[in-house]
Amino acid sequence: MNRPTKIILASVAVIVLIAGSIAVKLIWFPGADESIFREMTQQKLKQSRSGIVMVRPTRYPEAPTNDFTSTGGRGKRWLAGRNVTLQQLVGIAYDYNPGKVWIPANAPKNNYDFIVTALSGPQQHLRGAIQKKLGYVASVETRDTDVMALKVKDRTLPGMKESAAGAKRGENFKNGRLYLTHQKPADIIDPIASVLKIPVIDKTGLTGYYDFSLEWNEKLAKGEANQDDIQNILGQWGLGLEPDTAPIEMLAVKKAP
């Protein structure tokens, strides 16, 4: 082997080693400020150093489940969460409604803390960390699964008023209530699925537009409402949820090959 060839190969080896060390530092950088997790605010996340991608078993089991924040600007988006379920973690990483994330029965029941301050592709880096740290990947597939079906319980729809023709779709918060205008019952499917962490399908048969409202409380604001809370809200509108089964496009979580 001549001298120029040896020099080229040596240079390539150095570049590979440097690139490898940068990747390891990016994914497993140990210097995340613990106060980010204690406070869990956008402001604290903004003050963090860049280049951190970390997933770990939660150190905050007493925190609200699925406590999550994000911040962005100038083409970047940083993410952080504490005490999040695997379902929520994967939903964030793949930008998928967590209610449509299928988790295998033998998956760990642990909750996690995570932070991503990568300068680009934060969700892609989070996926990589989930695969490397937890050994899971995910892909979309259609599965027969348990769902909740949204149905009409009271034909008079007491809490829903038909929207005026030509009205604009909107949301308005006033005096502790959230007012939804010119929306179909199907429009609330994804928010319900996100809260209950289970797929929801529309079986109301209602295709028109309605105006309706709900009392906005702390449990809803924190995403801690349970099925009874949601049933109570829907009941005010003349709607309700019933268990059902249906083929649903899900984000299926599996062990990495």
Name a few traits of the molecule.
257 residues; alpha+beta; four-stranded mixed beta sheet; 32% helix; disordered N terminus
Please explain how this structure is put together.
Mean pLDDT is 87; it is low at 2-30. The protein has two domains: 27-134, no CATH class; 145-247, no CATH class. With 257 residues, the protein is of the alpha+beta class. 32% of the residues lie in helices and 34% in strands. It has a four-stranded antiparallel β-sheet with strand order 1-5-3-2. A four-stranded mixed β-sheet has the order 4-12-6-10. The chain has a four-stranded antiparallel β-sheet with strand order 7-11-9-8, with no helix packed on it. The chain is globular, with a radius of gyration of 23 Å.
Spatial strand arrangement across the major sheet? 1-5-3-2
- Got a strand count? 12
What is the terminal-to-terminal distance?
Answer: 39 Å
Based on secondary structure, the structural category is alpha+beta
Oligomer: single chain
Write the H/E string, N to C: HHHEEEHEEHEEEEHEEHHE
Summarize the structure.
With 257 residues, the protein is an alpha+beta fold. Helix content is 32%, strand content 34%.
Q: What topology emerges from the helices and strands here?
A:
Elements: H1 3-28, H2 34-39, H3 42-46, E1 53-57, E2 67-73, E3 76-85, H4 86-93, E4 101-102, E5 111-116, H5 122-134, E6 136-152, E7 161-162, E8 170-174, E9 177-183, H6 189-196, E10 200-202, E11 210-215, H7 218-221, H8 227-237, E12 239-255
